[in-house]
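Internal tracking record. Fields below are filled automatically when a chain is submitted to the structure queue. Please do not edit lines marked as system-generated. If the sequence contains nonstandard residues, flag them in the REMARKS field before resubmitting.
Queue: standard
Priority: normal
Entity type: single polypeptide chain
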Amino acid sequence: MSDNYKIIKREYQGIKLKFVVNESTYKPDKFTRLMANSININKGNHVCDVGTGSGALTIVASKLGAKRIVSIEIDEKTEKPFLKNCKMNTVKNVRLVKSDLLTNVKSKFDVIIANLPQIPYFKKEKPLTYGGWDGTKHLCKAIKQASSRLKKGGELYLNGASITNKDKIIKTFSKYEFKAEVIGKSKTYFTKELANKTLPLLFEHFMRLQSEGTAKIYKDKNRLYYYFFVYKGIKGG
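SYSTEM-GENERATED OUTPUT FOLLOWS
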């Protein structure tokens, strides 16, 4: 396959899918799986997938019965694999839009799915994973934008983590008239060496955030871990 693509197989909510990925593509991982297995799509829903990447969540939404899907991505390198994946999984009811989150989209949706960069860090590096000082930069912005793009009673599914200021995210949901709860979580084990291989001094930043009370890191028999979350916010107002 050209462009150094390889095919990987995944199964979400009993739906078997195939994806092409390469080194520049965000690969469907265990966090994608948690989100994909948490979302609820009703037949005929109008859905928006923010930060679609390889298109995994778009494709799941289509297979679950979405009528129309707007898929948003700011990274142009993902367009080719995204289109390949939609074609390979026979998904046609999709429109791909280049946008910084929901800025260029004004439609009203029944469901918005947002799986966004959330690594907390003290300076901007690796912009496709960077989430600001406490990891909430894109998450809180997505909540604000989604509040005016969801129908009343519409649902926002948003990623999060115990290292990403949970209290701030819950307060932001409330500020924009969402009733929010955590509907899924999974453990992610890590080490100081692994964190600092991802970004220099990332482990020390985690520890700083924990001392400030904005991050929670846990220990299981001397193994460190944090939780990855899926939030579900129901729009009121």
